[in-house]
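Field reference: "sequence" (input) and "structure" (output). Example, Efflux RND transporter periplasmic adaptor subunit:
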Amino acid sequence: MKTLTVRSLYVGVIGALALSLSACGNAGGVQPSTQQAAERGIPVEAVYVGKGSVRASFQASAILEADEETDVIARVSGIVEEVLVEEGDYVEQGQALARIESARYRFIRDQIAAELRGVEQELSRLQQLARQQMVSTEQLERLQSRHDALNAQLQIAELDLNESVIRAPISGHIAHRFVKNGNMIQAYQPKTLFHIVNADNLRATVHLPEHALSSIRVGQNADLELQASQRSEKVTAQVTRISPIIDSGSGTFRVVLNIRNDDHALRAGMFARVQLHYAQKDQVLRIPNQAIVRVDQDSYVFIANENKAQRVKITTGIRENGWIEVIDGISEGTPVIVTGQNTLRDDATIEVIQL
């Protein structure tokens, strides 16, 4: 009985000693880790402030339109004998597009021409007699009037005969052909025979907010991004017209851009995203836009001062594509925190990861 008691006491002492050593070992392991984490600080990413170009732009969207397009109508009546072009064909100004039956107009012209020749002969004879005072002035004037009327009728007949060939009023592509061989058409009818689009110059119309009116000028450049274009680079456009009127309903004004399209790679009807540049500054201090921390109406950045974060108030200017101009507050070469700054406080301990 005594032996069991001593053995139990011995085991208990050994166990307690082991637990005590284990606890001391665990306490020694946790404390350095906590202290090390406290010394490391908050991990952040920073970049050095540098110089570069910044452009201020308004963004909008637009549908490309042909700057020059027209409907072709008939100026004389008749039956279409021949259609000479098809949709997609390129035509020059004055090129024949279709022919209307012309025999009737040719006969009318010949008839008037023959009658005019007879009147001219008679007028010549009366003029000779008038010089001999053998006919009255009134008789000569009546014949002269008849001569002039026939001459005008002949010119109209010649015009009608020429108009029996329908010609292109502008150069461009045949966008639509509505007429067919054998169609009966009337002079100056509302129905269109062809629709021609000249794609050498396209235009894009954008609507900008009222406050942009003072910043937009004729001649300013814009970049167009077109998903359906065959061009890999952005397309350059230029401001050609600015509406002086603000739409009271939408609070916007209209701006028309001109796009040169000499290679005809662009098509009317394409959708475009427009960046209209109204200001550009070169070799100015700039920082990534995400570095800015807004407090009320003021702008701040956190700079890395050794292992401490320092909040600095700055004055900003124009911005473009993720960059913003810095007018005052920091200098070139200053390390500015761009990731993790939103959770920082002034004088916080940080660990900088330089980008």
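The chain has three domains: 43-55+282-354, 59-66+199-279, 69-185.
Residues 2-40 form the longest helix (39 residues).
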